[in-house]
TrEMBL record:
Cofactor: pyridoxal 5'-phosphate
Name of the gene: gcvP
Family label: Belongs to the GcvP family.
Domain of life: Bacteria
Organism whose genome encodes this protein: Brevundimonas nasdae
Protein name (database record): Glycine dehydrogenase (decarboxylating)
Length: 952
């Protein structure tokens, strides 16, 4: 065995890691190596191997770990936060809390690239898109973006590429949230666009801009008529983007009806806790004319091979994965789980319930407005939904102090102005309390009923007509119905709670229950991201310790927890590199070298950071071609800004030349960005910051156990060496340039997951996890090698933590495609491996350390059974069109049909391994037609008749 004895590993480590001692020994035996250390010696180059300890000591047991987190949570102070500014108190319905947010069937799912096993979450996302379309009054909405501020930056970029105006400036309403302004500024600066920030009614010269961003209602609470400004923009050929509060939109005229082309915002207040900044679903909706260029993922309706309606991700070819250098956005991981929660909040409340919640908030606000006016306080915003900006007459500090004493946070704007935003959790008591804070001597005039419908909303800004008329928003109002709807959708999907998900590059490892428990504690959830620091003492402790530990793991000197995904980490890291070069006068350094094998987000992020991409070739063994690298370095000369390299490579190999690649780049004045998505192969074995890299992102939703949530949330903090530390993202709430997310610590409320994982594993456990991840991948490679070619291996014949099966020879010989194999795996109850990345026509398998030998064998046996079916075609027993491979996946309708006229036995069709154990997974649809869906783009809930017609 390896040098760490079991006693030092701790009980949790054995729960996290799949193979036990006996299995590990047996697997090592198959590989012909004596122990784990021997395997690692054959895998990780000696030149980068780092045997020093991480210094974390032994792992904690689960009880102690939860106690530690309780202690941390207790240090956060839960005030009544009426700060607003994009974050509001809200009530997650408990049926959703327990059966969705806390349900592994939902949170351990992967992005729905395999639509046949994702119909449940795709339906929920289609509900989300429908909800957003109806609230905004626009035609097409995507299935979430990272937060409101990044959505606004994406809106600016979309405006720039689609406006008929060729101006180079973008206008931003000064009444936008400061954090939105920060993130938009950062993006505009990198791309060389000028920003004009001001009052749209006074400062906007429409002819000088390609677009504008307005906030509705404004940060001040003002509900302004945006129609005239939008008309002005349109006349000049510019695009009108509006950031809108989706709860206000249940009462307000939709921005679409006022002419907006793009609407963005955050769905946080649809039941998702503030969580000190996230995660929450950002949203974007656009006019029909812009639908083919909307960033992010889009769920659409298509049909399966039986002609039944079926959901899938639409317009996949627009994705950055495919577009690479031509990409216009780098969004990959988004906020699927949070979008689903928000959609279910709307499904459960329905349009009437949503309006009632909004109306109640508005009534309370109207009463507070009246009471404050009675006390002589002047209000800056004449109209309002839920937010009042009050002139304090120099009393801000005194009022603020009384608020603190009463456990209330207000929005401090300046010495003469304070903001108050009410929310779903507000009550008469809240109104009374706020009034007492502003005017301690006031009598209880606030309770005097000044209720008049929509008192704060001008009559011509009131929404007219019904919305959310689709039955899905009316059917599930009782808890019984809601519970069953959630269960029914979850049952249609395959997530980690049913099967291994061997997706290469995605690291679908265990998301342990103990790690998930603290996420829904109110001490983490009910914290406003802009609350004063002394209320965040617990969070701060967690941030500091997590940063320290990530530094120890990665060999870097400083960490920023701000980026909300790996791709945003790439963007933030490249911006740091850019700023570093500029600080030294190297303004011309704007070329980013990227190997041909890179993940699509790499070139997309480089593009967003204002760099141009030069591709470096890979050699026949899949490694970076050093000769070509030298040539490219020579060619770009002093324009070299950086190289972006993934390590171990996306080909699943520890390249021996990594140090040389770093040295060559540094010698030419460039910086090394090391994509850390594959850190699961390195933790405890080697440190990027020590072997030559300058900056990396860490996908906490891969290596550090944050569940994928069906396509988000994620977290992509970056680590940097000391010289880049001054260029890490800045605090967004200041409105200054440099921020990449709306909240200072990104999706802070899911950081306890990664933190708990690190505490539970201890340094020996973390190292063991890496070793077993490598063992599992090599075990699969060894078992499958006699049946499928393994595309790439390291110098000593080993793969890293993943391996690529080459199916191209079979395609040439028999016509069988990666799709056929992927869909046939569904019949065996498996989620497919990563398809056609990084090499078209291949499957990339990453088992992770969490899968035991039995599950690995079940998978290998399924692949070998599939190989036999390929042989049937090879040897002429069946043509591919008639084979079970092409007919896969098989549904209950197929096998229950009275007539079976296939060329293979009925039982062969459906008899996967799951069936033998009595827990067969039945996909709800047959193979889905992607081309049909893209030609007939439908991205919101289709009318029910269409289902009825299809069933005929
Ligand atoms: C997952 C991944 C990314 C992108 O990370 P997101 O969190 O999805 O944005 C980048 N590079 C590689 C190699 C990856 O596997």
């Amino acid at each position: 065995m390896s040098n760490s004895s079991n006693a030092t590993l701790g009980a949790f480590v054995h729960r996290h890691i799949g193979p036990d001692e006996a299995e590990t020994a047996e697997m090592l035996k198959l590989l012909g190596v004596p122990d784990l250390d021997g395997l690692i010696e054959q895998t990780v180059p000696a030149s980068i191997r780092d045997r020093s300890s991480l210094g974390f000591g032994p792992g904690l047991d689960e009880t102690t770990c939860l106690e530690r987190l309780r202690e941390i949570a207790r240090r956060n102070k839960r005030f009544t936060s009426l700060i607003g500014q994009g974050y509001y108190g809200t009530k997650m319905p408990l049926v959703i809390l327990r059966n969705l947010m806390e349900s592994p069937a939902w949170y351990t799912a992967y992005t729905p690239y395999q639509p046949e096993i994702s119909q449940g979450r795709l339906e929920a996302l289609l509900n989300f898109q429908t909800l957003v379309c109806e609230l905004t009054g626009l035609d097409v909405a995507n299935a979430s973006l990272l937060d409101e501020a990044t959505a606004a930056a994406e809106a600016m970029a979309l405006a720039q590429r689609s406006a008929s105006s060729k101006a180079d400036s973008f206008f931003v309403d000064a009444d936008c949230f400061p954090q939105t302004i920060s993130v938009v500024k950062t993006r505009a600066e990198a791309l060389g666009w000028r920003l004009v920030i001001g009052d749209p009614e006074k400062d906007l010269a429409a002819a000088d801009v390609f677009g504008a961003l307005l906030q509705y209602p404004g940060a001040s609470g003002q509900v302004r008529d945006i129609k005239p400004v939008i008309a002005q923009l349109h006349e000049a050929g510019a695009i009108a983007a509006v950031a809108a509060d989706p709860l206000a939109l249940t009462l307000l005229a939709s921005p679409g009806s006022l002419g907006a082309d793009i609407v963005v915002g955050s769905m946080q207040r649809y039941g998702v806790p503030m969580g000190c900044g996230g995660p929450h679903a950002g949203y974007m909706a656009v006019r029909d004319t812009l639908k083919r260029s909307i960033p992010g993922r889009l769920v659409g309706v298509s049909q399966d091979s039986r002609g039944r309606p079926a959901y899938r991700l639409a317009l996949q070819t627009r994705e950055q994965h495919i577009r690479r250098e031509k990409a216009t956005s780098n969004i990959c991981t988004a906020q699927v789980l949070l979008a689903i929660i928000a959609s279910m909040y709307a499904v459960y409340h329905g349009p009437d319930g949503l309006r009632a919640i909004a109306q109640r908030i508005h009534d309370l606000t109207a009463r507070l407005a009246q009471a404050l006016a009675d006390q002589g306080f002047e209000r800056i915003n004449s109209a309002f939904f839920d937010t009042l900006t009050i002139q304090t007459g120099g009393q801000t500090s005194a009022i603020h102090e009384r608020a603190r004493a009463a456990g209330v946070n207000l929005r401090r704007i300046d010495e003469n102005t304070l903001g108050v935003s009410l929310d779903e959790t507000s009550s008469d008591e809240t109104v009374r309390l706020v009034l007492a804070i502003f005017a301690p001597a006031a009598t209880s005039s606030a309770t005097a009923d000044s209720r008049q419908a929509l008192a704060g909303i001008p009559a011509d800004q009131v929404r007219s007509g019904p919305f959310l008329e689709h039955p899905v928003f009316h059917r599930y109002r009782s808890e019984t119905e809601m519970l069953r709807y959630l269960r029914r959708l979850a049952d249609r999907d395959l997530a980690l709670d049913r099967t291994m998900i061997p997706l290469g590059s995605c690291t679908m490892k265990l998301n342990a229950t103990v790690e998930m428990i603290p996420v829904t504690w109110p001490e983490f959830g009910e914290i406003h991201p802009f609350a004063p620091e002394d209320q965040l003492a617990g969070y701060q402790l967690l941030f500091d310790d997590l940063e320290t530990r990530l530094c120890a793991i990665s060999g870097y000197d400083a960490v920023s927890l701000q980026p909300n995904s790996g791709a945003q980490g790439e963007y933030a890291g490249l911006l740091a590199i850019r700023a570093y070069h500029r600080s030294r006068g190297d303004i011309q350094r704007e070329v980013c070298l990227i190997p041909a094998s890179a993940h699509g987000t790499n070139p997309a992020s480089a593009q967003l950071a204002g760099m141009s991409v030069v591709v470096v070739a890979c050699d026949a063994t899949g490694n970076v071609d050093i000769t070509d690298l030298r040539a490219k370095i020579e060619q770009v000369g002093d324009r070299l800004a950086a190289i972006m390299i993934t390590y171990p490579s996306t080909h699943g190999v520890f390249e021996e030349s990594i140090r040389e690649i770093c040295d060559l780049t540094h010698a030419a004045g460039g910086q090394v960005y090391l994509d850390g998505a594959n850190l699961n192969a390195q933790v405890g074995l080697c440190r990027p910051g020590a072997y030559g890299a300058d900056v990396s992102h860490f996908n906490l939703h891969k290596t550090f156990c944050i569940p994928h949530g069906g396509g988000g949330p994620g977290m992509g903090p970056i680590g940097v060496r000391a010289h880049l530390a001054p260029f890490l993202p800045s605090a967004p709430q200041t409105g200054e340039i440099g921020a990449v997310s709306a909240a200072p610590y990104g999706s802070a409320s899911i950081l306890p997951i990664s933190y708990a994982y690190i505490l539970l594993m201890g340094d020996e456990g973390l190292k063991r996890a890496t070793e077993v991840a490598i063992l599992n991948a090599n075990y699969i490679a060894e078992r499958l090698a006699p049946h499928f070619p393994i595309l790439y291996r390291g110098d000593q014949g080993r793969v890293a933590h993943e391996c690529i099966l080459d199916l191209r020879p079979f395609k040439d010989a028999t016509g069988v495609t990666v799709d056929d194999v992927a869909k046939r795996l569904i019949d065996h109850g498996f989620h497919a491996p990563t398809m056609s990345f990084p090499v078209a026509g291949t499957l990339m398998i990453e088992p992770t350390e969490s899968e035991g030998q039995a599950e690995l064998d079940r998978f290998c046996d399924a692949m070998i059974a599939i190989r036999r079916e390929i042989a049937d075609v090879e040897q002429g027993r069946l043509v591919i069109e008639d084979s079970p491979l092409r007919h896969a996946p098989h549904t209950a309708d197929d096998v229950a049909a009275d007539v079976w006229n296939r060329a293979y036995p009925r039982a062969q069709g459906w008899l996967g391994f799951g069936a033998q154990t009595g827990s067969k997974y039945w996909p709800p649809v047959n193979r889905i037609d992607n081309v049909f869906g893209d030609r007939n783009l439908v991205c919101s809930c289709p009318p029910l008749e269409s289902y009825a017609q299809a069933a005929e």
